## 1
Amino acid sequence: MAQQILTLEQFISLNQPTFPGGVGALTGLLSQIGLIGKFLAHDLRRAGLLDILGTTGETNVQGEAVKKLDEIANETFVRVLQQSGLICALASEEMEKPIILSRDGAQGSYMVLFDPLDGSSNTDVNMPLGSIFSIVRNQRPDQPLSERDLVRKGTEQVVAGYLLFGASTMLVYTVGQGVHGFTLEPGIGEYLLSHKAITMPARGKVYAANEGNYQKWPGGTQKYFDYLKVKDKATGRPYSGRYSGCLVADVHRMLLGGGIYLYPGELDKPEGKLRLLYEANPLAWVVEQAGGRASTGTLRILDVEAKQLHQRVPLIIGSADDVLEAESFIQGRRM
Ligand code: AFP
């Protein structure tokens, strides 16, 4: 029998009947994310031809040079999501403050936190890019919304996932019932189910990290990377290094083929670089739902107490056995 061709909407109505807010809400939310993906894929495919490369000369809340595509991606997320009628607040890596769409929650009970363009250093060199999204529910519908309503633990997410702009455009998400991947068929403008119930191998043979930072890492972290390079057939070492500069692309590689991505804490920056609420938390839930593991090196990402909207966190994420092994070195239990 021919492989069943299911669109995103068909899959949701068939497979996610127990989503707390109802199948209609989930379909609405993911359709909006999918629409954003279509807009961004269209822009990115032509970026080299239009005057949207290079920087705007401004810097964002992270103090990083804002590339024009960062701004375009952020504006696309805001424009589409605020028209959805489902969402009462938005928070973005590119915006210091959240956007409160309705004070009384009348606009909808979902709040979306996102990194609109992950890997933006890849923009001008036609390398992979992604967007990451994390959705939580408004817990205080009868109260005026504020920033603190968005600062939640990873275990409170109701939807999480990413868009990957690579050779093809993919949407990967979880609602806590497994991880499912859809590939955009540009000819018909539909996301078709291509990776149902993704499960990660318990161990991989690939690692992704910026080893230019090696000298900044604590000793335990350095010892783990040294360990990965020692020949040992039984544990598939030495591992191969694969680092794209785009967290979404690297994690997607591990999700499908196994392996580990690390952006560890550094001696003078123990909190690392990546953001908890809209990078680490959503990807940690996706990876755990696929049988993997995600930690700071010492604490499960989804259990990290969120205190600030743009809070940074070290990220060790990937195949369960690989992350456990990295943790044993980082915690000094292995030398
Ligand atoms: P940009 O979006 O600023 O390029 O950062 C990308 C990222 O957040 C993640 O996607 C990469 O894995 C990591 O940072 C790259 O950081 P380094 O350039 O420090 O290796």
## 2
Amino acid sequence: MRRYFLKTFGCAMNSSDSERIETILESIGMEKTEMVENTDVVLLNTCSIKQHAEDRVHGFVHNAKKMGKIVGLTGCMVKNSSLQSSEIKDPLLKKYKKIDLVFRIEDILKLPELLKSFDPTLTQPELPIDELDYLNITPKRTEKYRAFVPIMTGCDKFCTYCIVPFTRGRERSRPFEDILAECERHVLEGVVEITLVGQNVNAYFVDDSVRVPLQRQTDFATLLEKVAQIPGLQRLKFTSPHPRHMGDDVLEVMAKYKNIARTLHLPVQSGSSRILRTMGREHRIDTFKKITTKARELMPEITITTDIIVGFCGETEEDFQKTIKLFEEEQFLVAYISKYSSRKGTFAESKLKDDVLLPEKKRRYDVLNEKLKETSQNENKRIIGDIEAVLVEEVENGMAKGKTHTGRTCVFSLHSSTFQKIPTSCVGKIIPVKITGSDVWSVMGEEIV
Ligand code: 5AD
Ligand code: SF4
């Protein structure tokens, strides 16, 4: 058993965790495959935020089993690291006999031991003892030019609809020095873009023992500034912050350092303060707007993106119209819109009524998506004629694609002198681009030489 296939569902935190899984498996001589057909073991790093996310995982398990593979799960669907033969088994293993093993992501180091029960010849990893905290395992970077660095995990907010505090546990910050050391190492190795990740990145505390869960002031601004100061780091991003901890200090650091991307992802969830209250979100629409106004005052070029849930318990047409109005006022560049999905164990599931019927949720989703097309198009149009720095992710037939410093997707033509060299060597480079046109979801331009 030497080959593994790893699929990641969900957020940036899961992607970052997957890179640590790769380190462990490669340290015991296993090799990654790109196709399920060619593998021995299929590992799925799961997400349970919505029922739909879990359904996709089960579909994958079903197909992998049909091909006769060993199937293992980690991530947010897993509670206890165990095997089908274990005495104390995770509920998932009891319910789904097709799954062979599950492990909590904090227990990555137990993965080789679990796999050994399928192949006794597998070795154990030789890792320093301080790597017992899984975040200290050096990630195997899948891309040379950008890296996701976890700075905290977990969530103390308990929004009434959300399963994350139950799956990821309480907020826990990584030591300041470990984060800085990891970022510095990445930059020395040629990384140009770092994204700081966590369920509530701006709930970062240098010393967790003095953490007051709902305290507004945190140490995130200090950390952000230190990382921004790393010589040679060209672009710094973070995701996802919580409006509660988005103080002026964070915005001021963003404004001060030009290498911090000019885009702010700020999940609002609803445009109605009444719904925000039943969601257990601590912010209201006026406090949300104070943040975006300040951000735009300090950085007029900034784009704002958000997360929205439509059809939450008790959401009326009037509430929904307030969300549409918020889109018009805020001109979001991107919004991740979800239909409310009841999650077992949450406050909303047990105490509130999931009373917006699915066809109505779908209608609100479609209406809001149309509104988003308008606001996104407006935001993209806003920079025609400007010069933007684009980090190239793909190159094909003389055209490059990547993200601008303001978070827009940009497709542009490479100058013939660049193209005649080795065009694919542009991947991972930051190139100045004159923006000449725009579309609903992107801008177009030409490389400037
Ligand atoms: N139903 C629908 N969407 C949800 N989200 C979180 N929980 C649920 C749920 N139960 C969305 C929120 C969050 C994003 C990561 O997923 O918008 O910000
Ligand atoms: Fe879930 Fe709310 Fe925590 Fe975000 S802040 S992870 S939505 S509980």
